[in-house]
Structures are given as C-alpha cells and as structure tokens.
Amino acid sequence: MTLIASPVVPTRGRLRPLALGEVTITGGFWAERQHVNGTATLAHIEHWLEREGWIGNFDLAAAGELPDGRRGREFSDSEVYKYLEAVAWEIGRTGDPALEDRFRKVAARVAAAQEPDGYLNTKFGRPGQGERWSALEWGHELYCIGHLLQAAVARARTRPDADDGLVEVARRAADLVCVVFGPGGIESVCGHAEIEPALVEFARVTGDERYLDQAALFVERRGRGTLRDIEFGRSYYQDDVPVRDATVLRGHAVRAGYLAAGAVDVAVERGDEELLAALVTQWHNTVARRTYLTGGVGSHHQDEAFGDDWVLPPDRAYSETCASVASIMFSWRLLLARGSAHYADLIERNLVNVVATSSSAEGTAFFYANTLHQRTPGTPAAAGELSPRASSSVRAPWFEVSCCPPNVARTLASLAAYVATVDDDGLQLHQYAPAAIRTTLPSGMAIALDVETGYPRDGVIRVRVREDAAAPWTLSLRVPAWAEGARLVVDGSEEAVTPGTALVRRAFRAGDVVELHLPVTPRFTAADPRIDAVRGCLAVERGPEVLCLESVDLVAASAGRVDDISGVRLDPAVAPRDVDGAVVVRLRRSPAHSRPWPYGGPDAEPAGAGETFDVPLVPYHDWAERGPSTMRVWLPA
Amino acid sequence: MTLIASPVVPTRGRLRPLALGEVTITGGFWAERQHVNGTATLAHIEHWLEREGWIGNFDLAAAGELPDGRRGREFSDSEVYKYLEAVAWEIGRTGDPALEDRFRKVAARVAAAQEPDGYLNTKFGRPGQGERWSALEWGHELYCIGHLLQAAVARARTRPDADDGLVEVARRAADLVCVVFGPGGIESVCGHAEIEPALVEFARVTGDERYLDQAALFVERRGRGTLRDIEFGRSYYQDDVPVRDATVLRGHAVRAGYLAAGAVDVAVERGDEELLAALVTQWHNTVARRTYLTGGVGSHHQDEAFGDDWVLPPDRAYSETCASVASIMFSWRLLLARGSAHYADLIERNLVNVVATSSSAEGTAFFYANTLHQRTPGTPAAAGELSPRASSSVRAPWFEVSCCPPNVARTLASLAAYVATVDDDGLQLHQYAPAAIRTTLPSGMAIALDVETGYPRDGVIRVRVREDAAAPWTLSLRVPAWAEGARLVVDGSEEAVTPGTALVRRAFRAGDVVELHLPVTPRFTAADPRIDAVRGCLAVERGPEVLCLESVDLVAASAGRVDDISGVRLDPAVAPRDVDGAVVVRLRRSPAHSRPWPYGGPDAEPAGAGETFDVPLVPYHDWAERGPSTMRVWLPA
Fold first, then answer.
1. d(CA A201, CA A211)
2. How many beta-carbon pairs under 8 angstroms link A with B?
C-alpha cells in the first residue's frame, strides 16, 4: 500500500487527499502561522510537558515508580501523543533534523513505559492506581491510546522507514484493545471518543482490518447506555442515542466531533451508506442550529457541550478550540466522502476564526474557550504560570487541562493536507493560500499549480498552471457561501459564479491562469431570529473573517470619551467600509440609565441618540493581542 | 434573654422581628403552601433522607462502622440538619406532636454520632476518611456545622424547654470550632459560607459572645486567599476580595448570599457601620446588574455562580432555588438593620417567583435550577427516582445534591416571620397575606391586626385593627416598586401613595380599617438594554408575579397549529389584559426560514407577519404543572 502523508486517507470516497509533500503553503496568512507553530509553539509545548511532568510520568512508569510522583490529569498522556503527532507532521513538512531528534527522544521515553502485553497508560493498572479499564466513563485510557495511534499514523506516513519503533508501540497497544474490547470482551466504549477514528486510520496505515472491525464495534456500541448515567446525562458522551439514529450532535462538543469523525471513517470503509447519511444529517442540523458565526461549537461552560437548538449565547460561548479541531476532522472526512463545498466552507470558518484565534501571534499562548463577547478586561496569567481556567479574556501559556495547544499544533503542522484534493477527473482547491501544488492524477497525469493570493484580506485567487496537460482535466475552485457576486476569469474572459464550486475543464498549458474573484468587501450579518441571544444585533464579516469591536479601538476612536462596549450601538444605516485596510463602522453613544432595578416599563428605555464615532473593527482572530480588553462580535443595532 | 421564635433576632437595628406565634398566615397563596409543606413536603424529605442513607450515616458513625457504607456527598449531613430546622419551625408553627416525635428521633440519631470533643461529621476524621479540616475548600465541614447550629437555633427558639439535647450538641460543636479556628488556630475559612450567620445566631440564642467573635473572625479572614485557587477562581468561594472591600456579589451564588447574610449579622452586632455600608453597596449593585426578573440569581451552570454584570441569559438561567433562599436571608437582615422597603420588595420577588416555583403543587417535587426559558420539553425523572441533574424542565423528587428541598421547607415553615416587624413607634407590614398579628410594641402597647386580602391575585390589602390603642402608633405598609398608582384608603378617605412605605399614624381603635390598593393589572416589562440576552423582548408581570408563556397554552390557543414557542412574537401594541382571571396577550405567528446556515444578510430575516392568537399566560410559579412543556418569560416583541 502507498503511504500518503496526510491525516486521513480513506480507501474510497469522492475525493482523494494529497500528501504534505504535494502541497506547500508558500506564504501569507497560514504560512506565517505554520512557521510560528514549527519554530515557537512546538518547543513551547515540549517545555510545558516537561515542566508539568507529563512526559516524566512515562519515565516514572518505566522505572516502576508509579503511582508516586505522577502529575497531571488522567488524560495527560494524550497531550504527549498529540505533541508527537504534531512533531511528526512538522518533520514531514520541513524535515527539520532537530525536531527529528526531539521526536526520537520523547518517543523512546514513551516506548519504555509500555507493558509487555501492550498496555500503555501512566494513570491506571499499577498497585495503588485504578485497575485497567475500571473507569471507562472518565478514565480516558482508550482516548489516550487513540492519540498514540494518531501519532503513529503521522510518523508512519511521514517517515515510513524510521526505526524509533513508535508504530510498533502503537500496534501492540491497538492489538491489546482489540483483544480486551473485541467480541467476547468488555462490551463498552470510552467516555471520550477518539479511539474510533484512530483505529480506522491505523487500519488504513497497516492494512490490518482488525482495527477497522474494532472501530466499527465501538461506533455501534455507542449510544446504548453501556456507560453510567451522570449529572450531565449520557448525552455528554453520546451514549444516549446510537450513532446511526441520531439527528444532531449533542453533549460534549469535542467528544461529539471525534465520534462523528470516526463514524464517517467506519461508514466510508464499510460502504455503510445508511450510517453515512445519518452523519450527513447530523452535520447539517448541527451547522444550521448549533454553530456560532465563527464556526465554533459548544454553548455550555459546565459540560463543554452543545446546547439545545438556537442556544448560542455570545457572552457564554464556550467554543472550545478543540471542538473546532474536531469539527474540522468531521467536515474533512465528509468532504472526502461526498465532495460538497459546504464542508470546506465550515472548515475555513473554523480555521480562520477559531484555530487562528486560539494561538497568540507569538504562538506561545492560547485560548481554550473562544467567547464572542468579553464583558470584562480580565487579568493575564502571571508570566510563566499555568492557568487553571479554560476561559479568560487573555491567552494563557498552558492549562491544567491543556488539550488545545497540541491540538492546534498538529492541525497547523498538517494544514497543507486540507488545501486541495484530486479525483479521477482533476484537482479541487478547497482552501485558499499562496501554495505550490505538484501531484499526479490517478490517471498518471502530472499536475503542477501555483496559487497566488492575498486571501483572506484580498479576494483575488490566481491559479497559475505550471505543466502542460496531455488531456483535459477539471480544476475545481470552491466559491464560499458568503461570496455572492464572485467572478471567474479565464483567459481574460470573465463569468459570474455562484456559491458552491466553479469548474474549469480543459487541457491546461503551462502558463495558463485562472482567477477567482471573491467579494471581500465588509458586510453586515444578521442571525436567525431563533438565536435569541443576539436578537437586534448585527455582526460584521469580511470574506471568511468574522470581525469584532475591541474596547481599545473604541477608546481611541472616541478620544477616550467611551470605554464601555455596552454603551454604544451600531448605526445600521451606514454600511461597514474599508478605510486603509481597516473595516470601520459607525457607532452611536447610547448611555443607559442607571436604575436600582434593571426592569421597568417599555418606555423606560433610554433615548439613545448621542454622538457618533467611526470605529475600526479588528478580525476576531487578532483580538486580545493588545492587552486585556473587552470585545464583542455582535453589535446592538 | 428572651427567645423570639424567629430565624433572625439581632440585638440592635432599625426593626425588630416578630415571633412565629405573633403572626399567623391564615389563608391564601402562602397558607396553602405552608400547609402542603407541613403535611407533605417534610415527610417526603425524611423519606428520601432515609432512603438515601443520609440519616443512616449518623447511625453508622455512632456504631463505629464508618467509612464503610457511607452514602451521599460530603455535605449530606447538612440536609439532615436543614430538615431538622424545618421541622423545628413547623413545630413552632403548629405544635404537631407527630412532628415533635419525628424531630426527637432524628435528633437523637444525630447526637449519638457526635465525638467526645464535639466534632460531628460523617465524612471526615475516621481511619479511612480524610482528616478533619483537611479539605476546607470542598469538605463542607464548617458548612455542615453551620446548619446544625441553625437547627439548634430553631429548636431553642420554638421549644426552649425541650430535653432532646440538640442545642447542647450544637454548643459542643460550636465550641470546638472556636478552639480549632479561633485565634492561634487554623487561619482559614470554609469553602462554603454558612458557619458565619449560624455562629452569630447561636451567639444571639446563647448570649455567648465567643460565637460572635468567631463569626467575625471568619468574615474578616474571607477574601484573603487562604483557600486554594481553583478552576473557577477564588471568587467562587468569595476568597478573592475581603468582604468589606467588595462592591458586588460574585462567585457561587449560594455561598455569596450566605456569606453576605453572616457579614450583615456581624456588622450589626458589632456596630460596624463600614462593613454594613459595604454590604448595602453589594446588595444594590447585585440587584441592579446581576439579578433576574424573578429575583433569582446565578447565570452560570458551570459553577452555580453569578456572571459578569448584565449576563442574565434566560435560557441558561441557573437561578438556583437555594440562591433565592440566600438572597432572602441577606435582604431580610438588611431590612431589619435599615428598614428600607426595597429589601422587602426583593424578598417578595424571590418568594413569589422562585421559592413558590421550586415546589410542585403537591410539595413532593422540586426545581433546583429555575430557568426563564425552557426550549425542550424534557422528560420527567422516572417515578420515585433520584435525579442526578440540577436543571430540567420537570420538577424532581430528589437530587444527588439535594440542598434545595429542605431549604424551601425551612423557609416556608418560618415564613410568618417575614410578614411584619415592629419598632418603637409601630408596626411594619412587609409581605401581604391573610394574617392575624398579635404583638406588643417595645413600649408595652398591645397591637392586634387582621389582614384580609386576595393578594397577589387581587390588589386590595385590608388591615383591620382589633384592639384599641392607648396612644398613637404608626402602621407602615410597603408599597412595592412596581405599584405606581397605588392608593391608601383610611376611613373612607383616599390618597395616592408612591412606592416605598405608606404610613398611617393614629391612636387606632378596634374596628379601624386601613386599605392599600395596589394596581395588579398586568403590565409589560422591558429590560435594561445592557442585558443583551433579552434585547427586543418584553415580559409580562402582574403585581409581584412574573408570567410566562407555556407551550401547552400556545397549542390550545392556536388550535394545534403552533406548538413552537420560538415561532411566535408578541404584539406589543396590544396591552396584556385580564380575561376571567387569566392574563392574555396577542401573539403573531412568525415562521422562521429553515436555512442551512443560520446567519446571513440583514434582509434575510423573515417578514414575520402571520396570523395572530390571543394566548393566556400563566404565573411562572405555576409552570410545568401540566407535564413536560416549553416555556418562556421574555417574549420577542
């Protein structure tokens, strides 16, 4: 079998992924973030994994010293695995020998902790610890093994000849899982899905169908109440309704996304159209009723969970970074299976407005939750201090539960994989960034393209063909759903294209240029009236970017006279406009009465007509880069 | 010293409480609830305390069998104490000999578990358990002792000659607390405030100042970071800012309210005007910015906590029943200290719209959280099953954390205490219910009044004097803040009165009648525009009652054509009107587009003009009595 260096490589489906070596992001918005990720974030993560003892736990295990001295939560092993996965993709991307050295050293420490029968977990199974598999609801043992498998998948696909043995470590752990949880074994599932997509991908890498069978078993078992009922209900871990009967994602948002991704994998490999159709329905209903404007999901802080339909409060948006990573995983698998552009639309929304938001510009501090309305400036974590809190107005270097930083890192390191795909007939561009693409179609025809663009700030995407084609093929370009009025320019002739995909079919010649012009003029966006929490508000978007009002800009624009973002209203009669690259809106000062009781007759509302200011908005992914501030995406109109 | 049978008996302050024996609620809204509480709820609670083993834990402790077999959470002892407190007040109210027997039996089982040095807790201190006082953040040891003291206070004040020994049990526990946490002892506080008001009240009962000193120490220590930082921050247990420096309540709402109540007690007994002023400020800011229309508090499910200013989402309102009990405790103490009617206003709002909402009509099922917008009908707990969940659309008979039912029970049993007070010059009526009041002023003058009213449904409160007065005295009647247009009728002459207090001073004669006419016509209520979550909505109130739209009424009024409460809008041009005792509003059907992505251009909002229905609303305290339903208090206009 061939090893395509990409996170998801189905054996069938509508589209075929390209390898990291076939797509290089050469500049712009994402190249900068990939560079920061590789040069700053990965080292930052390893520093904290060492500092907090989460890698050290493996050393203690190897030395037989556990449970004494073990540090971190029950799932801390998984952060080490996600770090290894990120490093493996980064090695695949850049070939950095220093990273290769780091990878081998950490992988060796992990390997040394594995028990003879393949079991690998620093939290369970030893005298003084909980028994193996005794805490499926909260123990995260299978979840951790899932991330180990994903790290091994990344390693196997980027360095197939490596002799570090991580793939063998993963194989022994996966084999044990198949024995313990296979037919006749423990008839249950992990409280946190992740083993499901991991086993399928490991089957794809190894060609061993047992892993796929086990993943299918886990997917089928879920939703049948084998896990204990808990305060949040079994929906928390999706153990309330069988996957093929569910109509919408619910419960813990990361768990829900990982499970859905794994279920798509199973459906695709098994040709299970019924299951796949159920997942498509779940995707659509979740997007239509349970998703924030940013693409983020999860309205509950309490259980990091989806709320009911239409419960999307901006000020209590949880929108965990990892939930967007999970959403991207789910959407990407459906995109490969079905090919529809709306999956890539949602991926873009999450990449631009959540993944890119989570990391600071320096790549060494992160948002775990991504609120859409910050009411108090908050205080930064003391320099170098771990934050116990998932939500804050200030990015933190590390968290007690630190799933998000390595999840962002592995996503950014493998980002090129999400740019384009191929099918028998041609190549599909899904995400727009300056890029060099060199691949061959299944027919054997070589394709070479360069993409030139200032996207997302600029709306022109120029695709320059670098190789003569022996026969016609189809170049497919995604036209985002927001891009009403988009135009396609081929050989100087221009045509209007509608949201979905724009196709150009021909025997391309080297030097051919195809241009897609997307209208990235800023625009007002309203919400479905059933989203009660933003009734009477408008947001401003520009291309795929969600914008926001940050207090620092309000203070400056009002010459210090207004510092309270709840003391202004948007003038909806003045369209947002681009002024020297910044999007400016007109706000009206609207001082509220200070009343002892904040409820009263309808006529008690203040008149509201006050002085106006033209205030620049900033892209949401850039907020909170200028110190603690208040912020809102949805502006009262 | 005299023992006034009332929960709070300060030695100084503006107003003096009356004893349960001096005020009898004789009929109407609250008498019915007191009756259900005494005849059904108390037995229901004891049944569940036995069934769940929470009383049995004391038996195990006495038999030396703990920790094996202990059941319930770390604070389960406190539910037994709150039950005892409720029973003690009920005995004081009715003299029921069967309850007296129940009280003695349970009190004896509690007493048998006390250790020789006074320590009393079934969760800590034995081999195999956590050490005493080793878990101040979450252990609730002092919290439990606080509730033990409150039970003893109720017992001492209602049956001062009882020989069951509960007061002595409490005294030994309180003495131990003073030794362990007094000067030179452990310099910290309990993660859940409650010991503070309890110690002050115990000092008031016993006359022993040591308990007051200890309470003052606890109040002063709070806010200085002696407890560990946690995910929610130290504000969770108010250990972030010293009480006298704080400007608003924050963190866990029940903890915040109990602490504030105890701090008022300390301030009053110590004559500490600076501390009292700080608490008055906290009360005002909390009421003005962090309180739901119902009077409920707590916007976060995650940490059962206050949110930032203006964060009051109706659909994620936590508004824990116990937080309203705590709010009543805080307000009542400020009312006694300061005398201002707005404290009684907030008490009424909480009593009518939260306390009365929590219990089912039968008194055997309860809301723990009190949402203002229920989006899904939900499913009832299986009959007789404990609910692991605090929030649901259906009242549950019992919870894993079951603080609310006994808190409601003790409040209802002692409710008469909140109806009226006296001062040197006369009597103040704070809450309106049919009642008989027989007391003497500090001067020795006897006062006898009967209150006749159909309040809150009817706005006429008739006070009939039953005793000739030897000298003039002042009858003070609260005019609620919403009661614009109220009128006072004395001897057939009528005058307009404004919100606050209406005073009638004279040498009353038996047979004199004073009537207060409060305008209880239904009215629209709007919210401060900074409460983003209800922008563009109106609520409907009638007198002190908040009303709501329940789906069952929408279905009936639309002849089954509309069952989705998010598919209608209020017609604000048609005032709510009283039709045969029901409040009816006009709703307009407003079907929303079903779009794949719920955000788009502002013109994409549906036109909304559809057929109209006149639909009756129900008092919020009556909702969810007709099976699972959806509901909303705030109606889009």
1. 9
2. 180
B533–chain A nearest CA distance, Å: 5
CA distance A9 to A17: 6
Q: Mind listing the pLDDT tens digit for each residue in B251-280?
A: 999 999 999 999 999 999 999 999 999 999
- Residue B313: which of A302, A310, A533 has the nearest Cβ? A533
CB B501 within 8 A of CB B489: no
Q: Which of A334, A532, A589, A635 would you mutate first to test chain B, the one with the most B CBs within 10 A? A: A532
Question: Is the CB of A599 less than 8 angstroms away from the CB of B539?
Answer: yes
Residues of A whose CB is below 8 A from B535: 535-537, 636
Pairing of strands A23-25, A435-440: antiparallel
Nearest CA-CA distance, residue B435 and chain A, Å: 29
Distance between CA atoms of residues A497 and B553, nearest Å: 48
Strand, coil or helix: B502: strand
The verdict on a CB contact (< 8 Å) between B592 and A528 is: yes
Using an 8 Å CB-CB cutoff, list chain A residues near B388. Answer: 229-231
CB-count exposure of residue A347 (10 Å: 0-12, 13-18, 19+)? buried
pTM: 0.95
Q: How many angstroms separate the CA of residue A107 from the nearest CA in chain B?
A: 31
User: What is the spatial distance between Cα B577 and Cα A198, in angstroms, rounded to a whole number?
Assistant: 61
Contacts 24+ apart (CB under 8 A), A396-400: A396/A365, A396/A366, A396/A368, A397/A44, A397/A48, A397/A364, A397/A365, A397/A366, A398/A48, A398/A52, A399/A366, A399/A368, A400/A73, A400/B231
Comparing alpha-carbon positions, the chain A residue that sits nearest to B482 is A600
> Looking at residue B131, what DSSP letter applies?
P
Nearest-CB residue to A599 (from B390, B527, B602)? B527
Q: What is the ipTM of this complex?
A: 0.93
Judging contacts by C-beta atoms under 8 Å, the chain B residues touching residue A232 are 389
Q: A536 and B538: CB-CB below 8 Å?
A: no
The whole-number pLDDT of residue A604 equals 52
Task: Check CB contact under 8 Å for B599 and A530.
Answer: no
Count, residues in chain B = 637
Strand pairing of B493-496 and B635-636? unpaired
pLDDT in tens, B80-139: 999 999 999 999 999 999 999 999 999 999 999 999 999 999 999 999 999 999 999 999
Alpha carbon A568 to its chain centroid, in Å, reads 33
Whether B358 and B321 have beta carbons less than 8 Å apart is answered as: yes
Chain A residues within 8 A of B317 when measuring between CB atoms: none
Close Cβ partners of B618 (under 8 Å, ≥ 6 residues apart)? B547, B548, B550, B553, B582
A534 residue type, one letter = V
Q: What is the pLDDT of residues A589-623, one digit of tens each?
A: 987 778 899 999 886 555 555 889 999 999 999 99
End-to-end CA distance of chain A: 58
Tell me if B523 sits within 8 A of B576, measured CB to CB: yes
Q: Strand B446-453 vs strand B435-440: parallel, antiparallel, or unpaired?
A: antiparallel
> Is the Cβ pair A231, B390 closer than 8 Å?
yes
Output phi, psi for B380, to 5 deg: -70, 150
A393: confidence class by pLDDT, cuts 50, 70, 90: confident
Q: Give dist(CA B220, CA B572) in Å, integer.
A: 50
Subunit contact A599:B293, Cβ cutoff 8 A: yes
Tell me which chain B residues have a C-beta less than 8 angstroms from the C-beta of A539.
599
* Band (B607; pLDDT cuts 50, 70, 90): low
The reply to whether residue B598 touches residue A288, judged by beta carbons under 8 angstroms, is yes
* Partner-chain residue, chosen from A376, A529, A594, that has the shortest CB–CB distance to B308: A376
CA angle B168/B174/B17 to nearest 5° reads 80
Residue A3 exposed, middle or buried by CB count within 10 Å (0-12, 13-18, 19+) = middle
